[in-house]
Predict the 3D structure of the following.
Amino acid sequence: MSSYKKNALPKGITYRENDGRYMGRFMYHGESFTTYGKTIKETQKKMETLRYEVEHGIYFKNGNATFGSWFEIWLRDYKEPSVKMGTITVYRQNYNAYIKKTFEKRQLRDIRTDQIQRFYNEMAKDYSHNTLEICRAILNGAFMQAVRNEVIQRNPVSNAVLPRNGKKKEVRVMTIEEQTLFLEYAHNTEYFPLYELALSTGMRSGEIRGLQWSDVNFNDKAIHVSSTLTYQNGAYYMGTPKTTSSDRIIPMLNNVIRLLKQRKKEQAKERLMMGSYWNPLEGFENLVFTNSAGRPINRDRFKIAIDDIVKEICKDGIDFKRITPHTFRHTFATRCIENNVTPKVLQTILGHNDLATTMDTYVHVLKDTKETEMQKLACLFS
């Protein structure tokens, strides 16, 4: 035994004669919690750690945590402090849509690699490889942290293999005729300027709805994409762009300059007309596009408005497949390729991290363009 006398041991610690170890014990809400150590210092440290885990709801006795309960802890305590709010939203959406029904109620200690593998294989039949990658990131991150916290002994995800044959997600692109038709039907609607801006710059929905006047430089004829609007837990946040390459400069076409100058005039009139009812959120006073009260445009409301326009087109007997805000981005990129904008330049405009992302996403358009360009050589052999 150390220099401590039995009756001088720290509170909560006793010495076990039978095995020579120290036992640390404390009560919390009427329940007893115990830990052991070879030395007093080790036992004290284990007690501090155990008490913290118990008080913060992250202690699980004998690995009896369900994946669902551990996912909430992992997301709240380990991811929210370290990643963007947009990433948290993506993780929660994908967990609820794909992972929850399979693993929520299973105990962490009982989930095996073969079960993870079957989950991957079933997902690959119906969903894109990108969706599978997100699900793997969630599962692997949660289980790795559980191992670090000694909730479980091993990570069952580490030996599971992600299938390469995930269903290829079809990219919806409007033809030139569809693009013209959509803008005609949308011309007198509330969000027409956002549609035209998206089709003229390739900006993402959150980037457009989060665009601030300080990002618009009329002298240089350029837009600085420096932030993106996100909504989480009932509040709006101005986050950084999706990737480091997403922070970028986009040259403004003449129609974009006219559009934004007109928007500036209209917004000044709206503020004057609304008076005290113009009530922007703190930190969002400088938005280019807002609702009638000067507040951020809701992402879902933006989507619904697009759906409404497509419905109007279809009502007139025109076959028009559903589009989303991201369709504008794909359509912009396609128009660029059709007009001989090089993939490398397009990569910088879209804010892709690498050229491979651009090439992989728009390979179908590049193939058609390549065949057209090759035909120009035919005259040399005629």
